[in-house]
Amino acid sequence: METPNSPAPQPSSNGAVKTSAAAAQSSWLIRHGTTVLFTVVALGILGNWLSRADDPLLVITNLSKVILGLGLVIFIHELGHFVAAKACDVHVETFSIGFGPPLFGICQFKRGETTYKLAWIPLGGYVKMLGENPEDENADLNPRSYKNKSVGARMLIISAGVIMNVLLAVACFLFVYMTHGVRQNPGIVGQPNPGGAAWQKGLRRGDYIRQIGDRSNPYYEDIQRTVVGSERDKPITLVFDRFSDGPAQRVSEQIVPLRDEDIPIPMIGVQSASTTRLVEKLGHYPRPCDMGSVADQVEPRFEFGDRIIGCTDPKQPNAVTLLRSDPRHNDVHRPDFFELQRRLERLNGKPVTFRIERGDEKSATTLDITVPPAHGLTLGLRMKMGPIVSLRDHSPAAKAGLKSRRENEKGDIITAVEFTTAEGKRRKLSALPTGSEEPLDPVRLPTQLALWAESNPPSYDIDVTVLRVEGHEGSKPVTVKLTWQKDWDLYDNEPFR
Questions:
Q1: Distance CA 300, CA 278 (A)
Q2: How far is CA 127 from CA 35, 63, 295, 376, 477, in A?
Q3: 56: pLDDT confidence band, cut at 50, 70 and 90?
Q4: Could you identify which of 69, 146, 357, 490 might form a hypothetical disulfide with 345, taking C-beta atoms 3.0 to 4.6 angstroms apart as the criterion?
């Protein structure tokens, strides 16, 4: 029995705490359940993707760069809307970078009247203003409502995002231009495409294009733009310097870019040049070599960014000599990539020792790496010789009267090549070999002739037999004599110089 002075029964404090904690947890799950679910799913997808990647760290790095770059563009865009809205005294409810719930449910805060949020989906963002929804009736009487602002103010708020993006682009351009610049390839011919317009005019590897059309000292990208913008069947002035052992020779040609059904855009057919510096880090490759190649298996290893400054000298096979300084770049010392190419072609089938410079130029170390020759296997099949498809202007083959394939003419088909070796013996390559004759292989022919020319034969005359179509009389063999053009050195795409 209770007396008036007896205290009222009190609930257990432990039970109250437990009930309050359970209610708080339940409330938190209700509010943030979507965020938790989205986070778990996103992390699961990302983890599964990374487990399948060859280089997870590289994937994470590139993905982070994309997110940061896209986030910067979005932030600047939405900042424009936000600043314009504040300047026009519009009530801004939310400023969000990304869509969806906030990151981990905590990446948001409220300052003043505006909630600032960093959301999960980095594909956009938004600025939520009072009255921007026409159906928001509660904002009709609020003077700070977006819908109650003047037309000029609303236009400013809408266009401010785009204006900020334009200003960002200008700022980024100026920053890159003043600090890093954009690397452009000089107008040096790395390789003329066989049969192309430049090839027909006699351009060679290493030629330095000094003018194309009205553009002087063009970069490779300038050459592309000039050719693409050229008129049909109208020649373009092409001026280039040719470098050999002596001073550069200036050559001028009129060239007509090729256009036909197989070429959707006009082309002169030149590729940009390379350098003796190995590539920087490339994807998931562990080294700057084709995986499994002989260069990939040697010790010491090649590394990204190595600079080749010398290699085995064909004139002194037991010596490693430095490459000459590239005469195309007088303002800076740079090993000549084209001399490296010529040396490697002369050392075909032999081991080559490369002298490598590694590290920063001020503290670089030098080492030699020897690469054995790479021998391959074939099926033993020999390709059939096809018709001549193109001839270089003023070449010995053109002067000798060989015919290339044209619209109404079939090109000559080479059936035999005969020349005198350095030992004074006659050597004949034939499509139908008999006796001591050797098979005529169209794939090996350019290299065979180049190595023959390098052996200092007593004569550089070559007898070439072709099968020529003569009207309705059918085909008949024709033999012509031509002289090897020695100054072309070793060019794999030039069987007859």
A1: 15
A2: 21, 25, 56, 64, 82
A3: confident
A4: 490
**69-124 confidence digits (pLDDT tens):** 888 888 899 899 899 988 898 888 888 887 777 877 778 888 888 888 888 777 77
**How far is residue 115 CA from its own chain's centroid?**
44
- The whole-angstrom distance between residue 130's C-alpha and the CA centroid of its chain comes to 48
Nearest residue to 210 via CA among 234, 190, 238, 229: 238
Please indicate, yes or no, whether residues 41 and 156 belong to a single structural domain of this protein.
yes
Look at the block and give the residue holding tokens 């007088």.
Answer: 330
The pLDDT, as a whole number, for residue 53 is 66
What is the rounded average pLDDT for all residues in the chain? Answer: 83
Residue of 78, 132, 357, 494 marked active site: 78
State yes or no: is 78 an active-site residue: yes
Q: Residue 190: count other Cβ atoms within 10 Å of its Cβ.
A: 17
285 phi, psi to nearest 5 deg: -70, 135
Decide if 330 contacts 343 (C-beta within 8 A).
no
Q: How confident is the model over 116-164, as pLDDT tens digits?
A: 888 877 777 888 888 877 777 676 778 888 888 888 888 999 899 899 9
For residue 34, is it within any domain? yes
Q: Cis link prior to 300 (omega < 30° from 0)?
A: yes
Domain encompassing residue 127: 29-179
Nearest to 369 by CA among 279, 295, 282: 295
Clarify whether residues 34 and 143 are in a common domain.
Answer: yes
Give per-residue pLDDT as tens, 235-287.
999 999 998 777 889 999 999 998 877 767 899 999 999 999 998 877 667 88
The pLDDT assigned to 495 comes to 46
pLDDT score recorded for residue 378: 79
Q: 166: which 2 tokens?
A: 């334009």
Same domain, 200 and 155: no
B/e letters for 283-300, b = 16+ CB within 10 Å, e = fewer, are eeeebbbeeeeebbeeee
pLDDT at 352: 95
Q: What single DSSP character describes residue 142?
A: -
Q: Which of 186, 230, 235, 216 is nearest to 393 (CA)?
A: 235
Q: Is residue 383 situated within a structural domain? A: no
Tokens of 409: 């003419």
Number of Cβ atoms within 10 Å of the Cβ of 72: 13
- Cα distances (Å, whole numbers) of residue 155 to 136, 146, 152, 202, 430: 20, 11, 5, 60, 80
Q: What are phi and psi of 217, to 5 degrees?
A: 45, 55
- 469 located within any domain: yes
What's the number of CA atoms in the CB half-sphere (13 Å) around residue 301? Answer: 12
Torsion, CA 154, CA 156, CA 161, CA 167, rounded to 10: 180
Backbone angles phi, psi at 340, to 5 degrees: -60, -45
pLDDT tens digit string along 191-207? 999 888 999 998 999 99
Question: Which of residues 179, 211, 229 is at a domain's end?
Answer: 179
Helix (H, G, I), strand (E, B) or coil at 355: strand
- Quick one: 226 and 358 in the same domain? no
